[in-house]
Design a protein that fits this description.
Blueprint: H1 3-16, H2 41-61, H3 66-78, H4 82-140, H5 142-146
Length: about 150
């Protein structure tokens, strides 16, 4: 793709979807879209739990064939077959991909645990602030002024 063609595509896309911000509303072209995104601590905990279980299972079962694969690769190499080296390479790549998946699952699980704790603390703080405001408001009403 040439640079000019890229610039034309970007300009056409910008014309179709001009950047704008919508607060407290849903996009106008999708009337069936819902309102605010809501998630409960229960939902976060369920996703985090699934991520942890996947991490645990992958950690155990993802290495199930390591010993037999190493032996097969060694036997094939001993007989001067190139398939042995290819099998070793495949196993090494599988190990890298497995570690990447394990890291991703751990990050998801840990992040959701952290997010739940932070939001819970925020909810408690905001609740405390709001109850303080209502106490102050009471002092400015006729009932509060009598005391």
């Amino acid at each position: 793709m040439a640079w000019d063609e890229w610039e034309q595509l970007k300009a056409a896309a910008a014309e179709k979807h001009s950047a704008r911000m919508e607060l407290n509303s849903t996009p106008g072209d999708n009337p069936s879209a819902g309102g605010d995104l809501q998630v409960s601590q229960k939902d976060l905990a369920a996703v985090g739990d699934r991520a942890y279980k996947l991490w645990d299972r992958l950690g155990r079962d993802g290495k199930y064939a390591d010993a037999t694969t190493e032996k097969a690769a060694g036997d094939l190499k001993a007989h001067n077959l190139q398939l042995g080296a290819a099998l070793s390479t495949t196993q090494a790549e599988w190990g890298k991909q497995l570690r990447t998946l394990l890291d991703a699952c751990a990050q998801i699980s840990n992040h959701l645990d952290y997010t739940g704790k932070v939001h819970s603390g925020n909810d408690q703080f905001i609740g405390g602030q709001l109850s303080s405001i209502s106490t102050l408001d009471k002092g400015f009403t006729d009932e509060g002024a009598k005391h």
